[in-house]
Structures are given as C-alpha cells and as structure tokens.
Amino acid sequence: MLVSALLTSVGINSGLCVLFFVLYSILRKQPSYYEVYVPRLLAEGNSKRRSRFNLERLLPSPGWITKAWKLSEEDILSSSGLDALVFMRIITFSLKVFTFAGIIGIFILLPVNSIGTQLHEIDFADLSNNSLDVFTISNVKSGSKWLWIHFSAVYIVTIFVCCLLYFEYRYISSKRIAYFYSSKPQPHQFTILVRSIPVSFGSGVSESVESFFKEFHPTTYLSHVVVHRTNKLRSLIHESKKLYKSLLHLQSGPSHQKYRRIGLFGKRVDLVDHYEKKLEGIEQNVRLEQSDVSLAQETRAAFVSFKSRYGAAVACHLQQSINPTHWVTEQAPEPDDVYWPFFSSSFLRKWISKLVVVLACILLTILFLIPVLVVQGLTNLSQLEIMFPFLKSILTITFVSQVITGYLPSLILQLFLKIVPPIMEFLSSIQGYISHSDIEKSACNKVLWFTIWNIFFATVFSGSVLSQVSIFLDPKNIPGKLAVSVPAQASFFIAYVVTSGWTSTSSDLFRIIPLICSLATRCFKSANDELEVPSIPYHRDIPRVLFFGLLGITYFFLAPLILPFLLVYLCLAYIIFLNQFTNVYMPKYETAGKFWPIVHNSMIFSLVLMHAIAIGIFTLKKLSIASTLIFPLPVLTLLFNEYCRKRFLPNFVAYPAEVLLKKDRQEENDPAMAEFFNHLVTAYEDPALMPIQYSATTDSLNSPLLSSN
Amino acid sequence: MLVSALLTSVGINSGLCVLFFVLYSILRKQPSYYEVYVPRLLAEGNSKRRSRFNLERLLPSPGWITKAWKLSEEDILSSSGLDALVFMRIITFSLKVFTFAGIIGIFILLPVNSIGTQLHEIDFADLSNNSLDVFTISNVKSGSKWLWIHFSAVYIVTIFVCCLLYFEYRYISSKRIAYFYSSKPQPHQFTILVRSIPVSFGSGVSESVESFFKEFHPTTYLSHVVVHRTNKLRSLIHESKKLYKSLLHLQSGPSHQKYRRIGLFGKRVDLVDHYEKKLEGIEQNVRLEQSDVSLAQETRAAFVSFKSRYGAAVACHLQQSINPTHWVTEQAPEPDDVYWPFFSSSFLRKWISKLVVVLACILLTILFLIPVLVVQGLTNLSQLEIMFPFLKSILTITFVSQVITGYLPSLILQLFLKIVPPIMEFLSSIQGYISHSDIEKSACNKVLWFTIWNIFFATVFSGSVLSQVSIFLDPKNIPGKLAVSVPAQASFFIAYVVTSGWTSTSSDLFRIIPLICSLATRCFKSANDELEVPSIPYHRDIPRVLFFGLLGITYFFLAPLILPFLLVYLCLAYIIFLNQFTNVYMPKYETAGKFWPIVHNSMIFSLVLMHAIAIGIFTLKKLSIASTLIFPLPVLTLLFNEYCRKRFLPNFVAYPAEVLLKKDRQEENDPAMAEFFNHLVTAYEDPALMPIQYSATTDSLNSPLLSSN
C-alpha cells in the first residue's frame, strides 16, 4: 500500500467523522431527537423538551465536547457506576501506554526505519508515493546495529506496560472495595443462588431448601424463593402487554380507526371492544397459568437469602453437600439483572450446554473466515484482476484502486463484525448464566478472542482454517511465521484503525441505527410509549478497544506509524464515550469492576504475542543474540501476570471476609435494616408470577397498573 | 529381542524371586532379624523375642502368605489407615483391569497378531527362536480387516477402565467421608495454618493474630501458636541427643572403655565425666537458645485453632484480608506430620521456591537422560560392538549377549531410578510444604511424571532431550511418531516389568538395604536404642505401580504378551505389600485417601496416551477409518475425567459443610471435649521449644526424660 492510499482512507474517514460530529452537534439540540441523543437525561427529567425555536439550534456547536472533557472520575462513578469508570480507565490506560510508545515510536523508531535501505530508499521528493513498508522494520538492513534500538524499545515498553498494569489493577481493586463499603445494603449481597437441589420423594423443592438451610445455617438463614419455569407465562404476559399497548393506541387515535371489518365480508366490529375481550381472555389464561406454575413447574433451584453478607458468603464458598454436584452455590445477581429464559438448574445440563456453546463458537469462527478471505482478496489487487478480468479497466483508475485497497476491505470486515457481539451474547445466554452481567462478561471474552483470532490471525496468515490450525500445531515455528507475516499486514491494520476505529466510534456518537429506528417508528408511536434508555453493550465496546490495544502493542516497534492513528482513535473514544455515558447510556447492572481482569489478560496476551513476533523478527534479521535476549521477557511477563492473579484477582471474584464483616457490623444497629429484610424476602420473586391487570384499566389511561415488566 | 532372551531374563528373575522368598521365609523366624522383618509387631509388643530353638525355624514356610491373603479390607483400614487401603486398592484395581485386558489380549489379540505375516511367519517348530515382534501388532498386515479386532479392544478396554475408575473414585470418596465420621476429634481438624501475617509496627505476630481472629471470628476462635525459626536449636538438640546416647552406651559398656587419652600425650580422662560436662554445656546452650528463639525468631505464620471443625473450615475457605497475599490460610497437618525445617512463611518466598523447584526438576530430568541413553546403547548390541570392538569376542557368546540385552539394561535403569524418589522428596520439601504428607504427595506426582517422561518417552524416542522436546513441539505428528517407536520397544518393556517389577518387589519383601544396615550396625547398637519402625514411602511405591499400569494400558493391544508378566507382578505386589503393612510399615500420617486423585489422573493419562498411539498405529497400518473413529475416544475420556473432577475431587480437597457440622454436633455435648480442647491449645507447639533434660538422668538409666523427639 502506498502512502497515498493510506491518505485517501484517512481523508474519507476524517470527512465522515467531521460529518458525524457536525450532524450530531445539530441534531442533539432538536427536541424531536432527544429520545435518540439524550434518552438518559430525558428519563431522569434533566432535559425538558424545549419547543422554543432559535437560530442557535441549527448551528453546530462544540459545547458538548468541553462539557464531556470537564467530567471527573467522581462524576462518572456517581452517575454511571464503577463499570463505566472501568471502561473509561481502559481508554485512559491505552492513552498512557500509546503516548509513551508513540514518543519512542515516532521520534526514534520511525527515523531509524526510514533511513534503512533493505527495501527501498525513501523518496523525500514525493512522500505520498512511498510504500508504507519504508516506515516499517522491514526496511532496516539485516544484521544492522540499529536493530538494538528496536530491541531496547521492546524492553522499555514492556516494563512500562507491566508497571502501569500493576498500578491500574491495584487502583481498580481498591475502588471496588471502596465501592462496596459505600454501597447501600442490596439484595444480591445477602443472597446466593443454589442449583441442583436434591428432592426426596414426596416433598417439594421449597421444603427441601428450608429444611437444609434451617439445619445447617440456622443462625443466618432468612428466606428463599424457588425458581420456576415461566417461559410460557412470560410469552403470554408479553402478548397481553402488546395488546394493551395497541389498545391504548387505538383509544387515543381518531375514532374511524376503531372499527374494522373482520374477514372480507364480515361485519364491522368495534375493535376496542374486540381487543378488550381478547385481552381479558389472555389475562384469564395468565392467571390460570400462574397458579399452575407456582404449583407444578418448580425447578430445582432457589435464591436463598441470609441475614448477613458474611452468612451468604460462608454458604456460598463452602461445599455444602457430600455430593459436590448437589447444592451448587453461587453469588446471586442483582434482582433486575436476573435473566430467566435459559435458566438451567441441573449441574449436568449446565455443563453440557457449556460444551455445546464451545462447539458453536468454534463453528462460528470457521464460518467467519469466509468473509475474511474475501476481504483479504481485495487487498491483493492483482489477484482480483485475475479472478475478475472485466474489472481491469475500473481498477486501473487510481482513486478506485486506492478506495478498494485502502478502505473497502476494512469496511466489509467491520460490517461482518457488527453481527458477532449479538451472536456471542446469545451463545453466552444459553450457556446457563443467570444474569445479564455474567452473560455480557462471558460474551465480552468470546468476542475478544474471536476478534483476535479472526481479524488478527486470519488476516496475518491469510489462509484457511486448516493452515491456521496447522501453524498453531507447530508451536516451534510460530515466531518465525509471525515475523514474516505480521509486518506485511501493517498497512492493512493502519487502515483498519482509521476505518473501524475512527468511523465506527463517531457513528456510535451519531447513533445511526437508533436514529433510523426512531425515524421509522415515529409515526406508529404514541406518547405513552415508555422511553427505553439503552445500556452500553460492554461486550461490543470493550473487545474493540482491547483489540486496538493489541494492534498497538504488537505493531509499535514494527510499524510505528500506526501509533498516531491509534492515539487519535483513543482521544475520539474518550470524548465520545464520556458524552454518551452522561447523555445516552444508563447502567443496567453493576459488576463493580469485574470487567478489568479481562482487560488485564488481554494486555498480557498482547505483550507475549509482541515478544513472540520480536523473537521471530530478530531471528529473521540475523540478530540472533537479540532474539535470545528477548526470551526472558515473555517468561517474566507471564510470571508477573501470575503474581497479579494471586495478588488482585481474588478480590474480583468475591469480597474478603474482613470487608464483609466490617460492612455487616456497620449496619447491625441500623433501624432501616428491618425494612430492607422485609424487602429482601420478596426481592427475587419472578416478575412473571406477579399478578397483572390491564383489562380493567384501559378506561382510565393515566394509571395503568404496570406491575409486570 | 528373541523369545529366548526374554526367557533368560524371566529365568534369572524368577530365580531371584524364589531365592528372596525362601530367604525371607527363614530369616523372618530368626529372633535376631525381628527388627528387620517384623519391626511393627515388635513395636506393638505383638511379637516376643523367642529364644527357644527348634528345627522348624530353619525351614522355609509359606505360612505368612496365607496369613496375608486372609487379611480383609477392614483389617488393613483398622491397622494401617485409609492410605494403606487406598494403596492396596491401586493394586486390586490394576489386577481387575489387567485380568480383563489380559483375557482379551491373550485369547484374542495374541493369536491374531501371531498369524499375521507382516514381519515373519511364526516358527512353531522352535518357539524360542522367534522374535518377540511376531506377537505384536507390527506383525499384522497393513490394511488387514483383523485390525478391527484391535480397534474394538481399544474401545472395550477404555469403557471398562472408565467404569471401574468411576466406581473406585466413588468408593474411596465414600470411605473418606466414613473415615471422617468415625474418627476421634483430632487437632488438625480444628486448626488452620495462617501465613504472611502482616504485623503493625511495635506489635508482635502473636498479638496481631489474636486481635485479628478475635475481631473477625470471635465465636469460634480458640487459640494460636506462632511458628518459630528453630533450625539452629534443632541441631543443638540433635547433638545433645547423640551425646546422650553414646554416654548411655559408655556407661553400659565395660569399664576400660571409659578412659581415653585426650590428644597424643594428654592425660587419661574419665570419658563419662567428660561427656557429661559437654552434654551439660550443650543443654545450657539449648536453654539459652530456646529463650532467645521464643522472643526473637518468630516467623509470620501461626497455627490457629478453633472451637469447631466448621469454624476452622470457614476461616480456611474464605479469603480473610483485602490483600489476598496476607493472612493466607490452609488446613493444618496433623501435629506429628508437621515438617519444620524448610518452613517459609511469606507468600512471595513460597512462590519463588516453587519456581526454583520446577527448574530443578527440569534440570534433573535432562541430566537423567545420560544413564537412559547408556542403557539404550546396550539393547543395540551391534552399536556396542562398534563402540567397543574389544568386547566382540565376549558378545558372541549367546548367554552373555542375552543377559546384556535382556537383563542388564533394565537393571541399570532401575538402580538409577532408586535415587530419584529421595531427590524428589527433597525438592518437594524445599518447595514450602508444611507436612510430610504434602511433601510425599507432591514427590509422588513428581516421581510419577519423571518416570513417565524419562523411562517411557526417553526409551521410546531414544534420543536427546532436544529431539524429545522437538517432538512435543510438533503435536500434530505425535501419534505418528509414537506409532512407529512404541511397538518397537515392546520387548524392552516386557523385560522391564520382569526385572523392575518382579525383582524389586521381592527385594522389598526381603528388605535388602535395611538388612545390610542392621547387620552393619548390630555390633554398635546398645539394647536401649529405640526401635525405628519405618513407614511406607508412598512416593516411591505408588509411581511404580502406576507406571506399570501405564505400560499395561499402552501395550495391551500392541504387545499383549506383556499382560501375563504384569499380572504376576501385581499378584506378587498384592501379597507382599499386605504382608509388609501388617509386619513392617507403621503409618506416619493419615491423609484419608488423598493419594487417589493422583492414581485417577495417571490412569486417564495412560488411556489418552494409548488412544494417541492407536490413532498413529491405525494410520500407519493404512486403516484410516479406524484411526478417525478412535478420535472421539480421547475426547470422551477427557470429558469423563472432567466430570469426575467435578463430582469427586472436591471431597478430596476439603470436607463439605454438611459433614463438618454433623460431626461437630455429634460431639457438642461430649464431656471429653473439654479435655481435648485443653490438649489442642498446645498441640502445635514446636517440639524444639520444649524443655529438655538429659544430663541429670544419665545416672538412672531406666527413666530418661525423653521429652524431645
């Protein structure tokens, strides 16, 4: 790829970014778009629908940027919780790393690379006509002493990243503890989920749970709620809710809509009446089903609540029964966070569904290679010309070929990548997790490894699955193969940062899809529709930032030119996500920083991958002393990781006894606790089992008993 | 190797076995050898030193065999504990497996192999002149339909072994729980070991422990004992004990020994007086040191005892402090089982010493390949002749060459292997384990993997470390390489079973080394020397049995001829170990079956290794459908293992809450518990800190205050 092709891509994407920024600056001030751009503020009642028109509303203004810039960590923590803070810390962490690496890369490594003569001499007269390879390590002469500078850079950056990782882990760990100390008593702190409850013949799950915990935890046991299978019920309730909504819509609409012929020659009926009867019928069904379910469809799982956090922790951490596959305990999620549909109570079923999901992930990975290969074909213009000879005439136009090699491949890839997070979320959800947060955490991991495998390795080795797998079955030669293939793809990944990073982040700001949805549904919506405030899809955004981190770390000494683009991306992401957290996203749950270990692991993996590439490169460049001297680095990095696992990870899995007991004692004499315990007893009841009542309320539109969610 | 060479080896070893059996049968009846052959009975007072002579004493008798045969599991359990029972179950488990595999192997596979014609046709006229390879799978024609019989055998035996493993794991797990229920209250059930205790400036470890546990475990905390560094003290005590012994020896000996010249021209001194003074001096030192140690040399570790087993378990399983590397808890070992010398209290030091030990193990493995290579050279006579031409004339004698190829290699190997268990035990002991049992368990694992690597793989691949490692760095080709190399070494391993298995087990019975030691020290011993009852070195014997299990499982379908020899070995081992448990070995500690998971893992590894070989063999034999159809087998085996890990392993790590609470409640109102708790408070005090007093007691020989052990 030539410098000019890169510049084309940068040009297109910068244009798009500016366009998105300008449009956003204007549209966000229009009251009719408040639902898209400031749903959170609307929901919180902080933004009123001003209808007064003024000219200022039509001019783009950067006010929101300075507003976002001024936000402090305390603001984010208080408004969006610790998870949002952790997310922002990922970005600031990456900013720190790549500013440091960028200074080394641009001011030291880049000049060294470009004065090399292995490939071409740099053509200063016409910079844009140089190949990008001139700026990579490939241009340094084999055996050159200059390579020791790259060697030192690898060491220095590794040490810098490890130090930063250590301090960051410590900081977030302490924040997590502080968050727990400052939190109000919450149901999930006092509750555990018990699965695989053995039931003796003739007695129910409920009696079994009660007798077990009354026997073995008599002083701390408070209450329990048995989990029911309510899939059918939930769909009934959903149906009645939909019916209720259209009924509301009908009643508020013009009166001629209220009558319609049933069938072709049927008589005109009062639709309102018709719907109301139908609704009553469904509600009857729901009530029947509810009494049925509460009697029969018990699963062998229950939420068990305790009188203290420590009591819950003790019951959770100790193996309860002689058979370790019975009475399997885990921490309960927040009541709103519970995800019921795919709940599996048996130990064996959960295990099998996990295996199935692993297989599905492997299958998905293999299938996904097809679009990746197509994309790869595009970067090799000559190959494309051979395959489609009729394109030859078009491809000779400079601009077209530049767009095709510089922009199109990563755009296609990005579109395909868009569907991965929802698929992974679905796979995680059938894996037997009980909460949205666990599902997203697991999906986050899946998406991350999927991205690394399918974007990084598939692009680098640009081959079929089998050839990829065969490379990993031959671990001795991995560094050598990486050293050959990774630098060759530098220009693709620089373009990828610009396309996928810059544009997709700005389109996040502009919220294209919600905007389209909002425009499309505007005519069908009634004013009574609830405003849906979205939550940030961590499983989409964290892997993306982390993947750019991986690209930055692996390429910083190979092709330092990637770093400025990466820094621009990170700055954009910083401002945009700060803005979105205050205006758009509402936290759906709070894991109190449990996403950080994923970040840490990904960074460690990036470092070790970078070391493997370095070993290969130095061998390839005939500087074998350097490649030998790199060897201790991955070992030390992994040892460092092992230390961090021991030092910090336990605090992210569970809270220590010290903290739990202190917190319990703080509240021992709090009179508000009695009320809290009353609430706790019913906190985990299935919303589908709550009584619902829509039909009678359709007459009085303003006070619907929306007890079901 | 020819059948005749194998028969030579079998002949020599059978002769040795018979010799050992006869000698044992005679010597065990001689009162002067009671210390060697029935030390346990002597120590328990069940065997009196009969001095009446009769002829029967000089005739070998098989009475001990029938006696051992009649022992039931209950007898072993009550006399030698659950660990001994588990050990015997390893042997009976192997017996069951190889009887089943043996029936298939000898009656189905062996005939199939020998009618094959790939290598040679079998020579029925002169059976002993056939190469052993005629009886292996190598003799079956490539692509032959007969190979499906081998294929089915692999499936059937795998299923059989897995079923047996499942039932065995379940049986031992239930035995473990039953053992716990029936056990008397023991100090280690109520105690945990806490390491990395943080100490605030100005306060001691003891105060720190007390305030922490009084704050966070107020209802269950009982007492604690801080661990001290007592290495120096222990060597002083050892010295004084030795001095005391020689003093006793002097006093009981003839009077002319009591005087000796000091120096060449020095005056004659009363040695008793001299020794007594020296002893008094040392004891003075000990007392000084003791008061010093108890004040200064505290380590940051302590044994903390609780009022209930459940209390101890709760404190042990919950992370105590915000910093997970502080207040690190683990279950305490039995007081007699504590191993003090290499105690390291800090988290980081323990971690580093573990790394060092891993490195040492790798180094040892590499160094050990030298003798293995020498042994390998011996099996290739032609190579030997080239290297040492002067041996040519000797090597042409049939008997010599048969001894060299059939017997010598495994004898040398076995002698070298003798030193491995003590080295591994030493390495485990510096790894930071706190008890003999943990050390032996860890050493058991180390010896097992060392044996598998250095005997199995080194022999099979018969190459340098580098070529071995390079094979494992190329995992795709492992089955292929195994398929070529493993059957080629069948005859070596058959000889190995005979030499190492038969002879070393019978020499265990005969106890050669203790016998020589006893003969050598007989003249120096006084009657007052304590009788030392040995304990069984599990880290030597378990890996040996397991390694034979691995050989049997991997070779049963390749060279079924190995199975009869293996069965003979197992029968020998069964009788001999039963006999030794009653007569010789006294249990030193009780892990209640914690060795079983090692056995289980080793069996699973053997199965998967066998599958890998099968895949390779069937590919080699051009029956690729069979090799594809084997693929699910290792996957299913590993899944089965994973299930067992979840289903049974937790019970081997810790006792479940249910069991602990039931046991606690049983004893709640037992009046004997008050006394037990009194004893518990001091149970973990360092024996080196107990007052000692030898000097004053030398006059009255019959009541020495042997308070120190």
Automatic annotation (TrEMBL), chains A, B:
Sorted alphabetically, the keyword list is: Calcium, Ion channel, Ion transport, Membrane, Transmembrane, Transmembrane helix, Transport
* Compartment(s): Membrane
**GO molecular-function terms, A-Z:** calcium-activated cation channel activity
State what protein this is by name: CSC1-like protein At1g69450
Give the membrane topology: Multi-pass membrane protein
> Does Membrane show up as a keyword for this record?
yes
Domain named CSC1/OSCA1-like N-terminal transmembrane: which ranges?
Answer: 5-168
State the PANTHER family in the record: ERD (EARLY-RESPONSIVE TO DEHYDRATION STRESS) FAMILY PROTEIN, PROBABLE MEMBRANE PROTEIN DUF221-RELATED
GO CC annotation: plasma membrane
Q: Which residues form the CSC1/OSCA1-like 7TM region domain?
A: 354-618
Q: Into which family does the record put it? A: Belongs to the CSC1 (TC 1.A.17) family.
